[in-house]
Amino acid sequence: MFGELWRKFCSLLKKEAVHENEPQRILLLLRIILLILCLYFLSIPLVLSAVGPKTGVWIGYIFAVMAVAAFCATYRLKVHTSVLICAGVQLAWVIAFVILYGWDCGIQHLMFEMLVLVYFAIYNSLGYKIGYTILLFAVRFGLFLYCRTDISVLALTETATVVLQIINTVITFVLMAVACSMFSSNVESAEKKLVLYNAQLKKQAGTDPLTGLWNRRQMMQYITEKHQKEPNMAFTLGMGDIDFFKRINDHWGHDCGDAVLVWITRHMSQELSEHARLCRWGGEEFIFFFPEMNGDEVCLILNNLRMRLDNEPFDWKGEWIPITMTFGVEENDFHSNIDTLLKNVDDKLYMGKEQGRDRVIY
What we know:
By secondary structure, the protein is α+β, with helices and mostly antiparallel strands. The chain has two domains: 2-202, no CATH class; 216-361, Alpha-Beta Plaits (2-Layer Sandwich), CATH 3.30.70.270. 66% of the residues lie in helices and 10% in strands. It has twelve helices and seven strands. It has helices at 2-14, 24-51, 58-73, 79-101, 110-121, 126-149, 158-205, 216-229, 245-252, 254-272, 295-311, 338-354; strands at 235-242, 277-282, 285-291, 314-316, 319-321, 325-331, 360-361. The strands form two sheets. A five-stranded mixed sheet has the order 2-3-1-6-7, sandwiched between helices. A hairpin with a 2-residue loop joins strand 4 (314-316) and strand 5. Helix 2 packs antiparallel against helix 7, helix 4 packs parallel to helix 6 and helix 9 (245-252) crosses helix 10. The N and C termini lie far apart (78 Å).
């Protein structure tokens, strides 16, 4: 029974307004604030009846009705208007309470929550918000001057002053916490989405969409940064090219060619990813970066990959297509730059092509 009532209550709080494109989180925040205010307004007569003075307790009931009316209005009015009504109810309460019970009641601190509410919940110009700040300051300063020259309408006992100070401080902190938690979660959510989106964009910018391998840009950035940080690091570059790839595209179509690239990538990842960084250099060419490995070790690994491809033809719709690759290998000589090493490994690759393909040249 209680669970069903709670679900209905939460559903009521989250119900959308009649107007389209309204910020729902701010509507929810306003409704929560108004409900808290309503309970607070209703508690004031009880407190005053207990600690005095008992006259003037009616003000709490009046403002409780105003809070309920403002709560109901959030379902019909625009968010901008509802925010102003909520702030207006609080401002009227501050003015009335200070005039009735004096400056020492502490309710004037509620203006800080009103400032936070309007600054973050209304998407107006900065000039509008500065004007609102000046208004709150003028009201607060005016009330301070008023209390310096005039005594409160209703005299409070020392006990009543302390109790009201505590209650008003608590309500101010509660409303500030509710508002700040809502707005901070909005900022954190937006920031998280932005970080994830930027990470996704960065990944897309450095990834080949077909194979999922790094693209040329990402590989060059990685090798260059690695070489700059550790100029004396031993490494070996490998370059592979699918033999007669154009013939595959011309004979079986580009869909087949794309499938071959994905198939080759899976085999390369299984054989090389433990040892090397892989990159689709362009078309049917691939680059491999082997850190802390010499040319002989890399030749052994690439020959294992080459023989695996020789023994496992590609299945294209029931037709078996032999796929081979030619590789070039170039070891870091500790005096050539990256561009020179890449040119050397490319030359060795084409040397392998000229010698009949399906081989590793070092």
